[in-house]
Amino acid sequence: MSPVQHSVLAADLAANEASEHRPLIITLFAVFVVATLVITVWAGRQTKDAADFYAGGRQFSAFQNGLAVSGDYMSAASFLGIAGAIAIFGYDGFLYSIGFLVAWLVALLLVAEPLRNSGRYTMGDVLAYRMRQRPVRTAAGTSTIVVSIFYLLAQMAGAGVLVSLLLGITSDAGKILIVALVGVLMIVYVSIGGMKGTTWVQMVKAVLLIGGTLLITFLVLLKFDFNISDLLGTAAENSGKGAAFLEPGLQYGATGTSKLDFISLGIALVLGTAGLPHILIRFYTVPNAKAARKSVNWAIGIIGAFYLMTIALGFGAAALISQKEIIESNPSGNTAAPLLALHIGGVDSAWGAILLATISAVAFATILAVVAGLTLASSSSFAHDIYANVIRKGRATEKEEMKAARWATVFIGVVSIALGALARDLNVAGLVALAFAVAASANLPTILYSLFWKRFTTQGALWSIYGGLIVAVGLVLFSPVVSGDPKAMFPDVDFAWFPLKNPGIISIPFGFLMGWLGTVLSKEEPDAAKYAELEVRSLTGTGAH
Amino acid sequence: MATDAPPPSKEQHRLPSPEEFSEVQQSAEFGELRRSFRSFAFPLTIAFVAWYLLYVLLSNYAGGFMGTELFGNINVAFVFGLAQFVTTFLIAWWYSRHAAAKLDPKAEAIKSRMEGGA
């Protein structure tokens, strides 16, 4: 019994359109892969020391990094997931766009600059700064890897969905092959190109994604004579849900529980960004904190523009494609954006097939780039936090550290390929929101306490990281995302006693509470001298690397 | 292209001693920097999180109000959503202006004094 059975119909439809132009699709994919591999090899040759590998030599300009941050952030969740969520649930899907954007203010105001000033390569550098190194680095590394794997899961789900749409591959073996190909590419990008290669890949991808989205947005608006009210009206009518489609509540308004789920999701989105390790390490690629601030500003501009365009993507899909076709193609709407490209170009025309191929190639590029960024974050943290500082107690050479990072890349690649097969039918934006919830529960409280609370102790840091992490992941495990729901990873069993799909509303306050409790209950005194050092460095940039 | 930013210094700056850090942390000048950072960033963070939560809560519990049509098919919910975009852009701009005017000069002064004292 395969969970992809119901997607066969519409996938066939699109695949038939695509099949005549399959050489084109494969060419576009191949061009992107070859171009990025060339960049990777070039960057690999310039990667000489650890600062190159982990932080791209800290030589990128604020604009370049802003573009790369946007590339790292606008994942398959944003492109495929949000468009799909809006196409099916209308206004409720738009919450993702808003939450994902507003969240950047937390990063801008509280985290980006202090982190750039006081850290070196990883999130763990800042968390462990004034604490006992080994336990806190172990915790930071663990949570970095867990968050990144959740995020990877979503990207792999997106890759599987795309491929079945485009190439008509619906067999499990075929999908696993594609997911494996993505995995191998990401291992190559990261282990050879390091941060330098990955940053360039992100920039290329961001330009492609913005370009593709602009094109589709323009074509959608053109169809409605640039009258947004018309677009919304047609979407509402075509969705069969009328005015309710444009109002909040279609997905989350049914019961008190689903309303709580909406709040939970909303909190996770807004507090998650500033705790995402693959985003945080991007701030190390610029020369100083001022450049980090500027790169966040660029990112806010680019990402904001992109999320505004998700309105056209999502409501455009709802207006121009029947609900039946969207849902049959993928129960969570993950294929709405590529389907929109096909429809806007004309279902039976070459132009439609070309647009479909282009948008799918863009989505594929998006997935590859984000996967590379996530892998880099987790393998860096493994090598720098866990291997160099915990296992080797700070006595590893740079060469050994980089070697460990490369091996970690292979390991994480294999794990995410294995997990990727499990999550095909879940909305990829929903999956990413879980990574946000874990990041907001385990990482954000610890980062904020470390930077701004004088009394914070090692025990407090450990309690907030592990407390937030265990509760967030535990609640997900017993939620309808994993079991007891037709779209769950394991639809045939039911151990979902926690009713919410997103754990944020419980796990985030719990992370903050544990950090406070661990601190007030700890017997050790906080290290005042180390806090003085961290505080002065984080605000002034004194001695920044 | 990758080189249009000033190259970071590869050699390590002299890192001041723990005593110097503690001394600076206690100084009035640093206290002033900390105050102008925190008194700006903290309340503003609370404000935009509250503003965002207001939007989430209204979406949940004030469906009728959010569904009010303003012009054509554009309703209050839609305008509220767009307003979140606008405030995000404005706050980012406002903070950056504050940082450039009030924080950077103070931070620069302390940093160059501490690093230059070799």
UniProtKB/TrEMBL annotation, chain A:
GO MF annotations in UniProt: acetate transmembrane transporter activity; symporter activity
Protein's cellular compartments: Cell membrane
Lineage: Bacteria, Bacillati, Actinomycetota, Actinomycetes, Kitasatosporales
Membrane topology: Multi-pass membrane protein
UniProt protein name: Cation acetate symporter
Entry annotated with the keyword Nucleus: no
Family, similarity comment: Belongs to the sodium:solute symporter (SSF) (TC 2.A.21) family.
Keyword annotations: Cell membrane, Membrane, Symport, Transmembrane, Transmembrane helix, Transport
Automatic annotation (TrEMBL), chain B:
UniProt keyword annotation of Cell cycle present: no
Pfam families with a match to the protein in the record: DUF485 (PF04341)
InterPro entries linked: DUF485, MFS_trans_sf
Keyword tags: Membrane, Transmembrane, Transmembrane helix
Bilayer-spanning residue ranges: 40-58, 70-95
Sequence segments annotated as region (Disordered): 1-21
Stated name of the protein: DUF485 domain-containing protein
Organism: Streptomyces griseicoloratus
Source organism phylogeny: Bacteria, Bacillati, Actinomycetota, Actinomycetes, Kitasatosporales
